[in-house]
Design goal:
Layout: E1 2-7, H1 11-23, E2 28-31, E3 41-45, E4 65-70, H2 74-80, E5 87-90, H3 94-100, H4 102-113, E6 115-120, E7 123-128, E8 132-138, E9 141-146, E10 149-153, H5 157-164, E11 169-173, E12 176-179, E13 183-186, E14 190-193, E15 198-200, H6 206-214
Parallel strand pairs: 1-2, 1-3, 3-4, 4-5
Antiparallel strand pairs: 6-7, 8-9, 8-12, 9-10, 11-12, 13-14, 14-15
């Protein structure tokens, strides 16, 4: 479940975001904002640049998406981008801009909060794709290396690529798929991930990384 919080004094903003979520069938819930809680997505209304001081310490992770809604004011807009936000909506054009950029917004949400369902007997685990570092093929099984450890599954790489169905994952070797958001650097022979794993780069897959650079 994607946890969304909306900080706004305008009921129509709340209602429009709620209808937007329903329209796209997002597996999400809107929760009341509490300073000691983590949320996946923030929609925050600001009146001026001084309002940002209230939100500079909000709880966030590397996945968190933040959208500000505020006046068409240069200083306020410029200050917002110090927060590494996804988008700044002008409050007087909020509905139009949300609809204008809805494809990009939904794509970003799906990239961050899409799940892969792992099942082994009676055990079912839902993994966020953004928490998967890489997937390794080894002796007729795959090993999913994620933020929460390793999961083993009898499956091949072709099957898992089709099931993930996400542009975030690219194959760089006959035995490895990586989450491109986890790439730190690479050279002609190896790919270095942010968790310090070094993955071999197969000659036949170098074009995958070239496409990654331009996407």
């Amino acid at each position: 479940m994607i946890r969304i919080t909306i900080i706004s004094s305008h009921d129509d903003i709340y209602k429009f975001i709620d209808s937007f979520i329903q329209k796209h069938h997002l597996h999400a819930e809107i929760l009341d904002f509490k300073t000691n809680k983590y949320y996946d997505i923030y929609f925050i209304e600001v009146q001026n640049k001084d309002d940002y001081l209230k939100y500079q310490n909000i709880k966030r992770t590397h996945e968190t998406l933040i959208y500000f809604i505020g006046p068409h004011d240069f200083d306020t807009i410029q200050t917002s981008f110090h927060f590494n936000i996804q988008f700044y909506f002008r409050i007087e054009h909020f509905k139009q801009e949300l609809l204008e950029y809805e494809n990009q917004i939904i794509q970003k949400i799906q990239e961050h909060f899409h799940y892969y369902t792992y099942q082994n007997g009676h055990m079912i685990v839902k993994l966020r794709l953004s928490e998967i570092y890489y997937i390794e093929s080894l002796r007729h099984q795959i090993i999913i290396h994620s933020l929460n450890g390793e999961l083993h599954e009898r499956k091949n790489l072709k099957d898992i690529i089709n099931e993930l169905d996400s542009p975030a994952f690219i194959q760089v070797h006959k035995s490895f798929i990586i989450n491109r958001n986890m790439i730190q650097k690479y050279n002609s022979k190896e790919v270095y991930l942010k968790d310090h794993t070094v993955i071999p780069l197969g000659r036949a897959y170098k074009n995958q990384l070239k496409e990654y650079e331009t996407s």
